[in-house]
Amino acid sequence: MDDIRPIILCGGTGTRLWPMSRTQSPKQFQPVAGPDSLTFFQATIQRHRCKGFGKPVVVTAVQNYRTIVQQLKEIQCEATVICEPMARNTGPAVLAAAMMLAQETPDALMLILPSDHVIVGNLNTPIFEMRKAASDGRIVAFGIKPDYPETGYGYITDGGSFASYPGLHRVAEFVEKPPLAQAAALVSSGLAYWASGISLYSVKTIIKEFKRFDAPTHRAVGNAIQKGEWTGECLTLDPDSFSKATNEPTERVIFEKAESVAMSPLDVEWSDVGCWTSMHAIGHANEDGNVLSGDVISINSKNTYVRSEDRLVAVVGLSDIIVVDTPDAVLVTARGKCQDVKAIVETLKEETRREAVRHLTREHEWGQSQHVMSSSDHDMSLLRINPDAAISVDPLPGRQIIAGRAGLVIFDGLSRRVLGKGERVMLDVLDQTRLTNTSTDRIDVILVTLTSSMSSSTHLQSVSNG
C-alpha cells in the first residue's frame, strides 16, 4: 500500500498570539517553546516523518515561501510546496493538493494537518488504523475528547460505531463554535468531540465530493493548477483562476454534506494554541504554576506565563498574568482575556502600525535584516548575509557599512574590494553596491544611513545566491 501523503496547511495568521505572531511571520513559523525550539510548522512535519508517510505537501501563501524553504532546510526535509496567490480558506487549499497528487498517484491517501497545533501522544497509530476506511471512500475526521466546554472550537457528535471499521464512528452532526451553554451540554453528553482539523481520505474521494458539492471551486482550482507555474518543487497557482474558488473551509463545503464522512477519536493531548492562555496550558509549569521562557526571573508570582526573546524580564508578585516580550512590543494581559488580543492587532492595523505586520528582524533569500535604531541623525540596521549569498544596497549620500568578520567582498560597478574584520567603508553615492559573503559562515554587516539622506529605512535589494 502506498504511503500516506501529509498535507500541511500553512495559511493562518494567528492574530491572538501577537506580538510573537505577525501578518508576515505568522504563528506557525514561530518557535513553540522559545528561540531554540522547533517552530509549530517544523514540529508538524517531524511528527509524521516515519515509515508509512510519504513526502509532505505544504500549502501556503506566496509571501511565506522563503520561510517555508528555510525552515524545511533547517530540519533537512524535502517537500512539495503549493503557493496560494490569495487566501481562500482550507477548502481550495485541500483541493489543490488533491488535484496535484492525482496527477502522480490517483489512489493516494492524504492526511490533512493544520500547521500550528501542539500534539502530545501517539497520533500516527490511530491514523494508520483508518487507512482501509479511507481507501474504501470514507472521509475520516479525527476528534478529540473535550476537557471543558470550549466555545472557540467546532464539535463532532458521535452517531454510533461502524461494525466493519473498528474505531470508526458515524457523525450525527457538526456543531460550529457553540455558545457556552450548548458547549457545556455537548461535553456533558459524552458523545461530542472537538474537531481537531486533522482528517484522512483518498485523493479521488475528495475530488469527487468537491465536484458534486462545489463545482465552481472544482473548476477554479483545476484551472489554477493547469495554468500555474512550477519552479523546482514549488507550484504557484494561477491567481485569476484561484480567485474564483469559494472562500470556505473543507468542513463546511464537504464534511457537513457528504454521506461518506465519519469520525475517529484520538487519545492524545491536543491544543490548537489559539491564544496565550493555551500557551500557558501546554507549557512545563514549575511548582508555582509559572511557565517561563527565555531570560526570566520570577519572584513571588503564581500561574503566570512569561516569555522573553532577547533580554531579561523580571516579574514580582504577579498572579494569573501573561507577559510576552519581543524586541519591538510587549504584551501584558490577564489569563482568560487573551482572546481579546485580536482587538489590539485590529487597532494596530487601523493605525497602519508596522508592529501588526512584521518583526524588526526580516528573513530574506540572502539572510536576515534587522532594524537596530533610528535617531534624528542616522538610521542603523544589521544585515546577516549567508555564506555565498549577495545583496545590493541602494546608493545614498553618507551611507556606510562595517564588516563584522573577514570575507565580505564589495563591488560598486567599477572596483572590487575584500574587507577585513571591523573595516568600515563609505558606499558609492551614485550606483548600487553589491555585498557578497565569500566566507563559510554568516557575516554580520552594520549598515548606517544618515537620516537626512534617507527615503526609506534599509534600501535593500535581494540578489540571487552565488
Description of the molecule:
With 466 residues, the protein is of the alpha+beta class. The protein has 3 domains: 267 residues, Spore Coat Polysaccharide Biosynthesis Protein SpsA, Chain A (Alpha-Beta Complex), CATH 3.90.550; 66 residues, no CATH class; 100 residues, Jelly Rolls (Sandwich), CATH 2.60.120. Helices cover 22% and strands 33% of the residues. The radius of gyration is 25 Å and the shape is globular. The two termini are 42 Å apart. The C terminus is likely disordered.
Topology:
Elements: E1 5-10, H1 40-47, E2 57-61, H2 65-74, E3 80-84, H3 90-102, E4 109-114, E5 118-120, H4 124-129, H5 131-135, E6 139-144, E7 154-161, E8 169-176, H6 180-189, E9 192-202, H7 203-213, H8 215-226, E10 229-231, E11 234-236, H9 239-242, H10 250-255, E12 261-266, E13 269-271, H11 276-282, E14 291-293, E15 296-299, E16 305-308, E17 313-316, E18 321-326, E19 329-334, H12 341-350, E20 361-364, E21 367-374, E22 378-385, E23 390-393, E24 400-403, E25 408-411, E26 416-419, E27 424-426, E28 433-437, E29 443-450, E30 460-463
Parallel strand pairs: 1-2, 1-4, 2-3, 3-11, 6-12, 14-16, 15-17, 16-18
Antiparallel strand pairs: 4-9, 5-13, 6-9, 7-8, 7-9, 8-12, 10-11, 18-19, 20-21, 21-22, 22-29, 23-28, 23-30, 24-27, 24-29, 25-26, 25-28
Helix pairs in contact: 3-7, 3-8, 7-8
